[in-house]
């Protein structure tokens, strides 16, 4: 326990007066009782969350990249690549003890994956994707935790105590939760990604290009809307679109990603994808809170890498989306031919357009649901 003189000398109360000073002093004394050091408090931008950080591994100990690499049995250069893939910064001196022990040792999984036969470059890519996705999940969890514990009139100490209690209760649940969600995604990825006879004969390590149909859907006027509504409302609208898209993306249709106000879907079969995006347009038209949606589709050979898709139909579908009218589904000729004659849809020719980045003019067709006879 620090006495009053030590606390004054630490500078931790500088610039604070009245109730704010009393609250901070109460918080600091509680943190010191729990083993948090004065230096840790001084260097923290959020001392109110120091106790909860300790629950998830921040013990104040620092190690070097070299020490962590040697402990894991992984080459230093590869270990540093994995650290950066997880989101840790590049450090010039591998012998400098600048990484939190828990952060540095988070890469200990590398040796087991390498021993299982995973190539180093593939391991770095997997780690990067997990790091990117889990960074967003961690931010959402942080927001949810603070939203849970912050209440009118709560003091700094009360928020710190409540956050520590919440994190202590939730932390043991995160591992099983992440594993279950990841295994679900892996099961579906393995189910839908085949390997052709040619690829097997050639012994190719990665599946090649596939004939797929790509669709993009974006909210019309979203950028202008950002000038009139708070950022929180924009985020809510974007999340609403993502949730609706996941609901309509029934196998073989797969939700690929969200890009701000835009979503991307893929399917090896064009008809289910067209049905999905028509349903999505109908649902957004009925939602008074959402701007209208426009959709573009194209079919062609594309390759799946790192959870994303690359190839000419991806670029074409994005360009077609930009040419679509609000509330419409615009289909490139490639997708129109792939869908063929299906009495569930009606078509109107929307003209041939020169689209940015596409060499030849593209014939476009507007797709609608066929009216059901009464």
TrEMBL record:
<dbReference type="InterPro" id="IPR050697">
    <property type="entry name" value="Adenylyl/Guanylyl_Cyclase_3/4"/>
</dbReference>
<feature type="domain" description="Guanylate cyclase">
    <location>
        <begin position="213"/>
        <end position="321"/>
    </location>
</feature>
<comment type="similarity">
    <text>Belongs to the adenylyl cyclase class-3 family.</text>
</comment>
<dbReference type="GO" id="GO:0035556">
    <property type="term" value="P:intracellular signal transduction"/>
</dbReference>
<dbReference type="Pfam" id="PF16701">
    <property type="entry name" value="Ad_Cy_reg"/>
</dbReference>
<protein>
    <submittedName>
        <fullName>Family 3 adenylate cyclase</fullName>
    </submittedName>
</protein>
<dbReference type="GO" id="GO:0004016">
    <property type="term" value="F:adenylate cyclase activity"/>
</dbReference>
<dbReference type="Pfam" id="PF00211">
    <property type="entry name" value="Guanylate_cyc"/>
</dbReference>
<dbReference type="InterPro" id="IPR032026">
    <property type="entry name" value="Ad_Cy_reg"/>
</dbReference>
<dbReference type="InterPro" id="IPR029787">
    <property type="entry name" value="Nucleotide_cyclase"/>
</dbReference>
<dbReference type="GO" id="GO:0006171">
    <property type="term" value="P:cAMP biosynthetic process"/>
</dbReference>
<dbReference type="InterPro" id="IPR001054">
    <property type="entry name" value="A/G_cyclase"/>
</dbReference>
